[in-house]
Amino acid sequence: VRLEQKLSMDLNRKIDASNYGDNDLPLYPARTLICHVALKGFQLGSVVSVCIIAPAVSMYRRQPISTTFRSIIPIASLMGGSLSLASLFAKYNKGDLNSNDAVDDRAYRIYRNEGQNKVDKYSFIGAIAGAAASIVVPSTSISLLLASASTGMATGVLIYAGEKAANHFNEKFFPPAVDEKICSIHPVRVT
Predict the structure, then answer these.
(1) Is 96 exposed, middle or buried (CB count within 10 Å of its CB: 0-12, 13-18, 19+)?
(2) In sequence order, what are the beta bridge partners of 176?
(3) pLDDT (mean) for 66-79
(4) How many CB atoms lie within 10 A of CB 102?
(5) d(Cα 127, Cα 123) in Å, to the nearest integer?
(6) pTM of the predicted model over 0.70
(7) Closest Cα partner for 100 from 19, 24, 39?
(8) For residue 4, is pLDDT > 60?
(9) What does the pLDDT read at residue 1?
């Protein structure tokens, strides 16, 4: 592994803003990239575990979903995060992230992507709400706290996906008025 490649994923390397025209950049690009990849893994693990794995295991074992909920969901979410980080470091070892420019570019695109930022915000709020909801349960355990946070994260991702699908549906089936100059103050939707 070349020295430049090793330095490109240095967590303490600050971005050299003089190389870029935009001043709104992530300060530490490697941290931005690693946190993004880990979060996407946790989000995927949460959605898959809540929607598929936990119900399937519960039916297979013929046990209440609450029992499976505490044992399966935290593990699947952590596995999602771990697998996504493993794939990032496989790309790193392969040489796909072999320069500061490659890491900076990916971090910049992640940092400026409104959709990514919105789904991250929804999932974070969901995880906080899920964890907070588990604290009110008298017999709160760490497994319940993690399962509730993972379920909240999955809920946040699914709410974002539903919102995006609804917006796409509205745009496709209810296009804006043909003459936008006439309706420039308040676009009229054709129904």
Answers:
(1) exposed
(2) 189
(3) 84
(4) 19
(5) 6
(6) yes
(7) 19
(8) no
(9) 45
